[in-house]
Design a protein that fits this description.
alpha+beta, 4 domains, seven-stranded mixed β-sheet, six-stranded antiparallel β-sheet, 37% helix
Length: 450
């Protein structure tokens, strides 16, 4: 019986195996990737390493360094911010190919060496981004130089404040907005970014910028879709995303279709929603400080709306007023990652993941022609809230009692979907695979065998 020898090796034996792989890679007998693969096979773990999202999460950090801040503005991606944080790079190693020799007159060799990442600096970020743009591997919202310039504009206009360690006093202080008119980035001793009054002047090191303000001021672009997402009707109890409520109203319960980019269709739907929320007829909750809480109704009175499919308004972003920012609801994963409805200003998100009470919504906008999905029809199909599972199940059992089931499960699922489309055209339909998976056990039990 095989045993896990990796668990019984001594430290010396483990190190000897690693040293052998390092030596073979150094001599070019194997590549760095092959050394990693062999180490994993021997249960030593990969020789190279990069911290994963669970080891360092930049979104949990209240302040970011200059390279992290500029990386966010340029890439609008948390993984890129992670790659330009000091803890990530200190814990990261990679294989580098190079030529080498022993002494001045030793034999020349070439092979792979394990190296630690360089310290994160603005200069290095600029070089790396040039490769990203050339290779087209990472989408960028703007170049690093443009992102740095945008950050400087925001700081000198006082949209948010940064702090730094004064190189004269050694104390951390808030950097005045006016100072950013003269401060320039300089790479100081030890590969540390500084900002100075001129290249040779005094200034600040270890500059930190509030991450919430950065993410509120620059956020990912709205998802581009050519059609509306599946309708989420206000069935049952509980809450639903605010966008889904607006879609319910704008489509008149699924009866009306329109161009998602047509703001003139969204405008009256959102105006009606805002009026109901401001008058406390429609209850609203949101996430504040990581916890769900009721949102004060007065915040919705007269508020401006950044509509879900509209181009982002620079005027709204710079105004400093509270704005209702809306994204189309695609799925729960995107919704929780920031493509949600939120009350924001230029500094931060005040309330995230806004949701409205379903019962309030359907009592104000019942839409009689959408009676098929109101109020007691539950959907139940995995992953898609607008698909009426119990209707399909009822029809399936009726056909079973009448001896009308198709000869195969595939044919029966297809027939049930045709029936649903004919009998309940207002409902969205599940996929055939979903129906088959849900009906499989009952089909085998109820289909007579010959």
């Amino acid at each position: 019986m095989d045993t896990d020898k990796g668990l019984s090796r001594s430290w010396a034996e483990t190190q000897a195996l690693k040293d052998d792989l390092f030596e073979r890679a150094k001599l070019g007998e194997i590549t760095g990737e092959e050394a990693d693969a062999e180490a994993i096979r021997l249960r030593l773990g990969s020789l190279s390493h990069r911290p994963g999202p669970d080891e360092f999460r930049p979104e949990s950090e209240t302040h970011w360094t200059l390279p992290m801040a500029v990386a966010w503005i340029a890439y609008l991606d948390l993984d890129s911010v992670r790659e330009w944080s000091a803890p990530y790079r200190e814990g990261s190693t990679y294989w580098l190919w190079r030529k080498w020799q022993l002494g001045f007159d030793g034999a020349a060799h070439e092979g792979w060496f394990l190296e630690q990442f360089s310290k994160p600096t603005l200069a290095l970020l600029g070089i790396a981004s040039a490769f990203d743009r050339a290779e087209g591997e990472k989408p960028m919202s703007m170049s690093v130089s443009e992102a740095q310039a945008a950050l400087w504009v925001a700081l000198r206009e006082g949209f948010f404040a940064a702090s730094g360690v004064d190189v004269v006093t050694g104390r951390r202080v808030e950097i005045r907005a006016l100072d950013w008119h003269e401060l320039v980035p300089v790479q100081g001793h030890g590969e540390i970014d500084e900002v100075r009054f001129g290249l040779l002047g005094i200034g600040y090191r270890d500059v930190l910028i509030p991450s919430i303000a950065l993410r509120g001021f620059w956020h990912p672009p709205k998802l581009v879709r050519l059609e509306l997402p599946d309708l989420m009707p206000p069935t049952g109890n509980g809450y639903m995303p605010l966008f889904c409520a607006a879609q319910w109203i704008a489509t008149e319960g699924g009866k009306r279709d329109f161009d998602p980019a047509d703001v003139e269709v969204w405008r009256p739907a959102y105006n009606a929603l805002l009026s109901a929320m401001a008058s406390e007829k429609l209850r609203v909750i949101g996430i504040k400080g990581g916890q769900p809480e009721p949102v004060p109704s007065h915040l919705f009175a007269g508020i401006e709306v950044d509509y879900p499919y509209a181009d982002e308004s620079l005027e709204l972003m710079l105004s400093g007023n509270l704005v209702l920012r809306c994204y189309p609801y695609v799925d729960d994963e995107h919704w929780r990652k920031g493509w949600d409805d939120a009350l924001v200003d230029r500094a931060r998100d005040h309330w995230k993941r806004l949701m409205v009470e379903k019962g309030d919504l359907r009592s104000i906008w019942p839409f009689e022609h959408a009676v098929d999905v109101l109020p007691d029809q539950r959907t139940g199909m995995p992953g898609r809230p607008s698909k009426a599972r119990h209707l399909i199940e009822d029809e399936f059992h009726r056909k079973a009692e009448a001896g009308e089931l198709a000869n195969t499960l595939t044919d029966e699922a297809e027939a049930l979907l045709v029936w649903l489309a004919t009998a309940h055209p207002a409902l969205s339909r599940p996929t055939q695979t979903t129906v088959e998976n849900n009906m499989r056990a009952d089909y085998r039990r109820l289909k007579p065998t010959k």
